[in-house]
């Protein structure tokens, strides 16, 4: 989703406020300074360390995505009551 170009004014300390332009999930930005004076802000989202393994394992991540897609369209099934009995913790 592209947002139209906006003219943001600097305050007295040469700062700009992004305010409502930033989505709620964005927690920080990587900044790139180009030789021509252009500044590029790349949004970042932090994840808890205990969840990082999921994003490092592409197969598991794709499986989770498929599961979420299936669930969203109602493609789900019930597990038998004893399903968890065979799963080791």
Give me the strand/helix succession: EEHH
Number of helices: 2
Could you say which overall geometry the principal axes of the C-alpha atoms support?
A: elongated
Number of strands: 2
Give the CA-CA distance, first to last residue. Answer: 42 Å
Radius of gyration: 22 Å
Biggest sheet strand line-up: 1-2
Portion of residues in beta strands equals: 5-15%
Descriptors:
alpha+beta, 2 helices, 89 residues, elongated, two-stranded antiparallel sheet
Account of the 3D structure:
The protein has two helices and two strands, in the order ββαα. Strand 1 (28-33) and strand 2 (39-44) form a beta hairpin. The longest helix has 15 residues, at 58-72. The two termini are 42 Å apart. The chain has 89 residues and is α+β, with helices and mostly antiparallel strands. It has a domain at 47-75.
Quick overview:
This protein has 89 residues and is of the alpha+beta class.
């Amino acid at each position: 989703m592209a947002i139209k170009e906006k003219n943001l004014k600097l305050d007295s300390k040469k700062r700009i406020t992004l305010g409502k332009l930033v989505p709620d999930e964005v927690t920080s930005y990587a900044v790139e300074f180009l030789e021509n004076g252009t500044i590029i802000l790349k949004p970042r989202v932090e994840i808890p360390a205990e969840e990082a393994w999921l994003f490092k394992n592409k197969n598991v991540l794709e499986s989770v995505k498929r599961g979420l897609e299936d669930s969203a369209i109602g493609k789900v099934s019930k597990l038998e009551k004893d399903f968890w009995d065979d799963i080791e913790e």
